[in-house]
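Narrative of activities, Objective 1.

The group set out to show that a structural description can be obtained from nothing but a protein's sequence at a throughput compatible with the screening campaign. Below is one input-output pair from the validation batch, recorded exactly as produced.
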Amino acid sequence: MSEKMFSEDQLEQLRSFPEISRDELVRYFTPTPGDVAFVDTGRGRGAADRLGMLVQLCTLPWLGFVPNDVRSAPPATVARLADRLGVDPAALSSYGRRAQTRSDHLAMVAEYLGWKTAPVGSEEMKELEQFLLDRAMEHDSPTLLFNLAREYLASAKVIRPGAIVLAKMIGTARKGRVT
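Output recorded for this entry:
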């Protein structure tokens, strides 16, 4: 189903970091002193971990999820955050050497920011399914439905599920609408 709605290139774009505008750079990648303290070295983290964690902390409110390859963040965002931390932007290249680092850090970041996950069968997923069904009654465009779902999830501070999961949910909602 998702393969018909979105090409592989489109799915990859939905999983990755997009280009960032100057306004987005300033709005989302200007960490507060509290944000910097949250990732600070006093917790035993090296430069790569602090920078990677801060990239995740700033990316989550911007995109509503964090792409798997944190090291592929836009260079302007990495440079801005590295400057704020006083570390070399190249430190990010060694982020996530331990398999669980990214997911452990994302869980800490989500808790710090007040975001939550939406496991399959959770109340959040049921609400998303109903939201998509209601919107599919009004709109047929998968891209529009994807963007509406993304905005809905961000407003509820729910981390967006994977692009394929969300695409399948949109396909189900589109099938379930009254014609």
